[in-house]
Predict the structure.
Amino acid sequence: MDIKETVLGILNDLTGNDVSGAMDDNLFDSGLMDSMGSVQLLLQLQGDLGINVPVSEFERSEWDTPNKIIAKVESLA
Amino acid sequence: MLSFEPYGNPTYFALLGVALLPLMIGLLYGKRSRLYETLISIFFLVLTFGGPKWTQGVALIIYILYEVALTWGYAVYRKHQNSGPIFYLMVILAIIPLTIVKVTPAVENGQASLIGFLGVSYLTFRAVQTMMETRDGTLKDYQVMTFLQFMLFFPTISSGPIDRYRRFEADYRSVPDREKYLGMIQKGIRYIFVGFLYKFILAYYFGTMLMPKLQVMAMHSRGGFMDLSWPVLGYMYAYSADLFFDFAGYSLFAVGTSYIMGIATPMNFNQPWRSPNIKDFWNRWHITLSFWFRDFIYMRLVFWFMKHKVFKKPTTTANVTYIINMLVMGFWHGVTWYYITYGLFHGCALVINDTWLRYKKKHRASVPHNGFTQVFAIFLTANMVCFSFLIFSGMLDKLWFH
């Protein structure tokens, strides 16, 4: 499975929404994500893709839309 | 000898203007003089911590040497090794001075600790944060001189905003181009003038004119249900307005001065009174503090709890961590029943708020959302916040126990 699909799967699980139709929408502004969701995302990335992202690497403005998250994960993979 | 509260009176601002002028000319011509910046930093630090307050100055110097030794030592250690216990030990050592300063008044009948000085908590936040990012490996290039500049950056030393080492370093190591810098000067000056309005007019009116009168009236109207009365309600709003205008005003001075020095210190307030819920309120009120708590306490604790599967449900994890997070914030304000109650109140408010947001998400179709509910949400949030500030003010302590 490629990174984009995996990340979208995680995001759909976490937000309880299908985010693939709104790839540039800010997940924090819409209330779909919060700090709790961010941590869950980091843990899932660790579990599913083996990507370690320390909490202090998580700069919210770089992780606030599905597209940005995918780009970020691809750069770390 | 001269001695000032930072941004306390016109003379301070006049000196600030004179001292910043050469620096501004330098930045406009693309030059940042480290030496000059250091000299004016020392000058304003002496104004704040010298003269009659020299004991605070000594405490500051010893404290800084102590934190430099810890952060530097840890950065050197972290290059070779990475043990959990050592990291925890270093963090504990770094917060010991602050803990002593906060606990001393509670056990010594209000006596202030000798090792305290104005701004000790804000410096501790910066030092601990530097250490945590070193541990994570996100901060690899720790420099003692940069750390000193970061800690002792005079515009924000006494009450924040709490900047981040890496963000500060990026600004400090570069010179904004002329167009960008002119924009920063413009913003900086506007911030300082809005700050005048907030701090010297509005906070003065609410805090110095109104609050003492309402307090006297409230003390005279005791005897009713829980000693509450209309003046207490008035005091609640006046105190909240004073707290906001005083602190937002100070923050505008600090951010404005930073901008003029070519450093984009983050903003501390973003229209907090229009928050539709408590969660959003903490994204808008004393932002650099609440984000510090979010990033270095809340998220880390949640991460740890979830990694070690301490709680079965994510919602339990979130709720427990909300309470811990806000309780720590309460204790940080001081060890008194009203600060701790204030923390607990906000912890519970966040738990309730989150539960409601989850319910709303699930039943989106049946929960109405319109202009009226929006206004009601803002009204309710603002009043909950003002009530929490009444607890925070210590007024209830005076009403009930004095």
